[in-house]
UniProtKB/TrEMBL annotation:
UniProt-recorded name of the protein: YbaK/EbsC family protein
SUPFAM superfamilies in the cross-refs: YbaK/ProRS associated domain
Species whose genome carries this gene: Geovibrio thiophilus
Residues annotated as signal peptide: none
Pfam families found in the cross-reference section: tRNA_edit (PF04073)
Molecular function GO terms recorded: aminoacyl-tRNA deacylase activity
InterPro entries referenced in this protein's UniProt entry, alphabetically: YbaK/aa-tRNA-synt-asso_dom_sf, YbaK/aa-tRNA-synth-assoc-dom
Length: 158
């Protein structure tokens, strides 16, 4: 079984390879929830780029929706862009497709390339915080850099 620090190292290395100049921070307290991550980062809850994984059944692919920590994803809006209603992804599916556990799924460096959507409300911020491969690690990034490294499609998610 992969150790959490291996997952964080994978994300850290991917960020460097992608030319993102940021530091991955690891905390003793959890950053699994958006509120916990905001508390650790010292930022607004809305600045947390939470990763929610759904399943595209037809393609058997992960659908990664990166949304603001204050928003709840409307799957009908995702369906409009995906062409099918996304299914809920259980912990095993998330781990199998992304290589990470729920609560630490990063926007990058997945086991299998997901379909990626980015919440349009995140674009308004100068900086946002994203999971870094474990439920204890996050990193700061601009929305524009996150778009560049994920190739996400910016959409309305709520």
């Amino acid at each position: 079984m992969k150790k959490p620090q291996d997952s964080v190292a994978k994300v850290t290395n991917a960020l460097k390879e992608l030319g993102v100049n940021t530091e991955v921070l690891t905390f003793s307290q959890s950053t699994k929830t958006s509120q916990e991550a905001a508390d650790a980062a010292g930022c607004e809850l809305a600045q947390i780029a939470k990763s929610i994984v759904f399943r595209a059944k037809k393609a058997d692919k992960a659908v990664l929706v990166i949304t603001s920590g204050i928003n709840r994803v409307d799957t009908k809006l995702i369906r409009d862009h995906l062409g099918e209603k996304p299914d809920k992804a259980d912990a095993d599916f998330v781990r199998d497709k992304t290589g990470y556990v729920i609560g630490g799924v990063p926007a990058i460096a997945h086991k299998e390339e997901p379909i990626v959507f980015l919440d349009e409300t995140l674009i308004q911020f100068a900086e946002i915080w994203s999971a870094a491969g474990s439920p204890y690690s996050i990193y700061k990034i601009t929305p524009q850099e996150l778009l560049r490294i994920t190739g996400a499609k910016v959409i309305k998610v709520c």
